[in-house]
Design brief:
The chain has helices at residues 8-18, 44-53, 101-112, 130-134, 164-167, 178-184, 238-246, 261-268, 295-303, 307-314, 346-360, 378-391, 405-413, 433-436, 454-465, 469-486, and strands spanning 24-29, 58-60, 66-68, 71-76, 82-87, 145-149, 152-156, 200-206, 210-215, 229-234, 252-253, 272-285, 320-321, 368-375, 396-403, 420-426, 489-501, 505-506, 522-523. By secondary structure, the chain is α+β, with helices and mostly antiparallel strands. It folds into 2 domains: 8-238 and 502-523, Periplasmic binding protein-like II (D-Maltodextrin-Binding Protein, domain 2, 3-Layer(aba) Sandwich); 276-497, Dipeptide-binding Protein, Domain 3 (Dipeptide-binding Protein, domain 3), CATH 3.10.105.
Length: 526
């Protein structure tokens, strides 16, 4: 999963308008959202906002533990394939309408309709017939979701899925208000049109400036929501958010420039929050490219990257060198398979890589130029510069294409042309499938590398059908071993979340998902 520079004037206007509102949380966010349609979303910046606007059947609490949301309780059949959710009688939309089981039926069907164009629809493929519907092979009415009555929803899965409840915490599981979608179409996401069921409602959405949320008085737990407003401020430039935070103009920053970590820790102590984060920073390699289509080139490019240098020198020790794509500590997994060359010295790895490039017909005497695309940030620029130097011994020259985050990821998802592209993936749930599914051949939304391997797809299908968790983990390890051999993506680093949090902001708990719903936060004195 996946900030814009506020002008001083715009920020001053926001602050001036809210300076007397002690309950207004000024929240630095990663980037401008590409969309606020939960069925078309894919980035962390969007997830932060949508988590405040809407509530799914279940939600993450401040510790990233799954707790009841709209569903106050649920039962699971003995075979693990049928979930029956009982919805809260007090669940309401922001316009006062009751939240019903039919609303969820409408929403689950909508995300699977091919015409919706949901890049992330496959996250809900465990629901019976969902994949066939999404591919236009079945009618939406045949999806395994039905309203037993107004407050009882039944979801049937195609096979047991041990992480299904965690799937439902993702923004793709959030409901839409059917009447608003039917009346406004794609414009239902606009202020004045949007009807939401979360702790907040959408008041303003001003591109490159701010998104203003107001407390939803119809929210079933409104009495325990302290904040009157949340102003999401996009900061593509991380240093700008740091300066705003140090000036007391924002209460939190969602990411920090690595080169400032040491200074910030020395000056602000516990306000700097660095914690393990379930995610991987990687480079995607376009398998349709003439040069990168050669597996010897892909392996050589990976071998010569000094990940220890990236972690220690560029990210000041706040990231961890990655030797696999699936991050350590993930649930339902015995650990990633070993890759031999990570046990060798950098000098030996460089020699092996040079030999591989020569076999492929490339080297300093026959150089190749590759385009590296990345989204704007100091950290991404510094990584790109370092890797360009590392790859130079292979006769590889880099040219850069730099876009803001929304344009960058839109280009990748829409199959725009590139050679190498920087990306990052944050786990939506703690299971290796959430990382390895990205390069299945039919995953149009996230298979940036255009990887197409029938054997890999078959392993992923086999794992999906496995009911025994240990057997399933072994199959997924085989798939990851194949991934690391074929290298659709070069894993570089495992993420740590890096935030600045004001002492005035109460209730922030570091967690592996780095989720911090505003409903659980408050401001000192408010």
């Amino acid at each position: 999963m996946t900030r814009d520079l506020l002008t001083a004037t715009a920020l001053a206007l926001v602050l001036g308008a809210t300076s007397t509102a002690a309950q207004t949380y000024m929240r630095g966010n990663d980037a401008n959202p590409e969309t606020l349609d939960q069925h078309k979303t894919s980035t962390v910046a969007e997830a932060n906002i949508l988590r405040d606007l809407y509530e799914g059947l279940v939600v993450y609490d401040r510790n990233a533990e799954v707790i009841p949301g709209v569903a106050e309780s649920w039962e699971v059949s003995e075979d693990g394939t049928t979930y029956t959710f009982t919805l809260r009688e007090t669940a309401r939309w922001s316009n006062g309408d009751p939240v019903t089981a039919d609303d969820f039926v409408f929403s689950f069907r909508r995300i699977m309709m091919p015409e919706t164009g949901a890049k992330y629809a496959n996250i809900l493929y465990p629901i019976a017939n969902a994949e066939a519907i999404n591919k236009g092979e079945m009618d939406p009415e045949e999806m395994g979701v039905r309203a037993i009555d107004e407050k009882t929803l039944e979801i049937t899965l195609s096979q047991p899925t041990p992480y299904f409840l965690e799937l439902l915490t993702h923004q793709t599981g959030l409901p839409v208000h059917p009447a608003s979608v039917e009346e406004h179409g794609a414009e239902f996401v606009r202020p004045g049109n949007m009807v939401s069921n979360g702790a907040f409602t959408l008041e303003e959405n001003i591109l490159n400036d701010r998104i203003v949320l107001a407390k939803n008085e119809n929210f079933h737990d409104a009495e325990n929501v302290s904040l009157a407003r949340v102003n999401y401020l996009p900061f593509e430039d991380l240093s700008t958010c740091v300066r705003a935070w140090e000036a007391g103009e924002v209460h939190s920053c969602s990411d920090l420039p690595a080169e400032d970590i040491e200074r910030l820790q020395a000056e602000h102590g516990e306000a700097v929050r660095v914690a393990p984060y379930l995610g991987t920073y990687y480079y995607a390699l376009n398998h349709n490219d003439e040069v990168l289509g050669d597996p010897r080139v892909r392996q050589a490019l990976s071998m010569v990257i000094d990940r220890e240098f990236l972690a220690s020198e560029i990210f000041e020790g706040t990231m961890v060198p990655a030797q696999s794509f699936v991050p350590p500590g993930i649930g339902n997994y015995g650990g990633s398979p070993d890759v031999d060359y990570f046990d060798a010295s950098m000098l030996d790895r460089e020699d092996q890589a040079i030999a591989l490039m020569e076999e492929a017909g490339y080297g300093p005497d026959n150089p190749v130029t590759l385009e590296l695309a990345y989204n704007t940030s100091e950290n991404n620029k510094n990584v790109a510069t370092a890797i360009a130097d590392m790859w130079s011994i292979l006769g590889v020259d880099l040219e850069y294409t730099v876009r803001d985050a929304s344009a960058h990821y839109s280009h990748l998802r829409d199959k725009g042309d590139f050679d190498v592209a920087r990306a990052g993936w944050i786990g939506d749930y703690s299971d290796p499938q959430n990382f390895l599914f990205m390069v299945e051949s039919d995953n149009d939304g996230f298979n940036y590398a255009n990887y197409d391997n029938a054997e890999y797809d078959a392993l992923m299908d086999e794992a999906a059908a496995a009911a025994d968790l240990e057997a399933r983990a072994e199959i997924l390890q085989q798939a990851e071993a194949m991934f690391m051999e074929d290298l659709p993506f070069i894993p570089l680093l495992y993420y740590s979340s890096r935030s600045l949090v004001s002492s005035d902001l109460q209730g922030w708990e570091d967690n592996i998902q780095n989720v911090h719903p505003s409903r659980f936060l408050s401001l000192a004195g408010s």
